[in-house]
Amino acid sequence: MMMKIKEFRRNSLVILLLLMAIPNVQAQSLKDLFNRENIEKAVGAVTGKNTASMVGNWTYTGSAVQFESDNVLQNAGGALAASALTNKLDELLEKVDIRPGEFGYTFESDSSFVARIKNRELKGTYTYNTETKEANLKFARLVGINATIACTSSELQILFNVSKLLDFITYLSSKSSNSTLQSISALAENYDGMRMGFAFKREE
Description:
This protein is α+β, with helices and mostly antiparallel strands. 37% of the residues lie in helices and 31% in strands. It has helices at residues 2-21, 30-33, 36-47, 76-94, 162-172, 178-187; strands at 56-66, 103-107, 112-117, 120-129, 134-139, 142-151, 155-161, 195-202. It starts with a helix and ends with a strand.
């Protein structure tokens, strides 16, 4: 009997943590609350792990940033800083032809991928480490670049340290310029360990 009570309490705690991890629970219907995407977000918040495969077709939706410490985002100033950074990064990426709807990836289960930017296709291979949640992306004539991966069934983020992001942009875009690259680098100067990169949505 005591074991059943302990098990019930443990299960109740897990459910409570899942509910607390989903924003605006009270405003959501039960259907919304238990849809696949929200469950994945809740599990990710509690366990810190990705819950979906990056295999599939992905379309770029905008830039993404990740701070070394989550404490940066625990106040209004940090949230505003993140929003300002992504807005500025969006502007700079557009200068090198990285725009929503014109950039994307297809990741295959055989560890190959194709990056699409405007009318160009760049092929490569990748490996993914489930422990570190990092992928190594290898293009022809480009040494593999490590990237942090965050993935659910419908959203994907590929994030780099700043120097690797600059290498990646230089390879990816025929329009990259020193001034644009320097501007991107300057965005990260005030945030140690910040990662910058791309956000995607899964194509239907």
